[in-house]
What we know:
Oligomer: single chain
Bound molecules: zinc ion
Shape: globular
Amino acid sequence: xxRQPTITRGEILKATxxxxxxxxxxxxxxxxxxxxLRVGEIESRTGRPPDLLRLNPDAAYFVVVDLEASxxxxxxxxxxxxxxxxxxxxxxxxxxxxxLIAKGVEMVCGPMSRRELDAILAISICRPGIADAEGxxxxxxxxxxxxxxxxxxxxxxxxxxxxxxxxxxxVLAEYWLGRARxxxxxxxxEVGKGVGGAIISHGTFFQGRKQAEFGHITIEPDAPDxxxxxxxGCLEAIASSGSIVRxxxxxxxxxxxxxxxxxxxxxxxxxxRDDPQALAVINRAMRALGLGLSYLMAIFDxxxxxxxxxxxxxxxxxxxxxxxxxxxxxxxWNGPYELAVSRLGLDIxxxxxxxxxxxxxxxxxxxLRTLCQKRVWKSETRKKxx
Length: 386
Ligand SMILES: [Zn+2]
């Protein structure tokens, strides 16, 4: 029901293997609770026309936060991940406090009615960095070293809080809602503040013991580019948006006047207008990324790479360059493969957090009960009033 707009009982029976009596019982309860809606009938020449069913998108809401985005993004989504309200918060300079997240959540919930606020099931946050078993997060981009993030956010809100690594949220958003829908071997690569890659292999999210960090593979061992992790020549130190700006400024310093606060999109624009220094920086970044992707190709042999971050909006210029670099290093036994730019755009983290929240709600008995009971209570009061 989550994956398709409408569905019939017959399709559910086929997909779940439930027996018809059990399914009827389930659906009766879900319809009474307002979680499932009957939206019409399919025409039928014989017998009773089959009902068309769908999830009620407004049966519940999630508050979602993308800490990887710049600026940090907040949204309220419905059950299906459609964004209802949004809020952005400027870039925190170095370290980031949970109070700032709490403030953003308060702001995004500001326009909601009492009824909508009551229907918020959970808060779902995608964060950068690596967490240990106790939920302490180390993120060089956030300035966190073993920061007890999960404990702090859990204490800050009166709803369950789900925290997930951004890369995982992004690839699952692509897999459940985006370009990689139904593609069981795919890689999502985010190239922005940092460089992150996340892998779906055989339809399952691939994860190492703690977490694989694609951005910190060494791409140019002798390069002078110092990474935030302390090493030199990391992919992130060459291809992240900050690294692009840094390299460009280093090249043009003294030779031309630059407007203050230049960003990566501006460097990409200049490269498209044949600014030789900008072009050199972008070509170097694409070469580094192409090499990086070729390693993933050699190990995971995906059918599809989806690119996000600064690729969104610069697809026509960047994708052919990356494609050409990658093609240099892919062996003939790999492929065919495809390169695509995310269509979820800047909302990918919010969508991923919402999709994760939905799937975690399904796995959580207490939350499922809350989702269903609320509506039962409402229909009972309506009955009494009637
Ligand atoms: Zn690094």
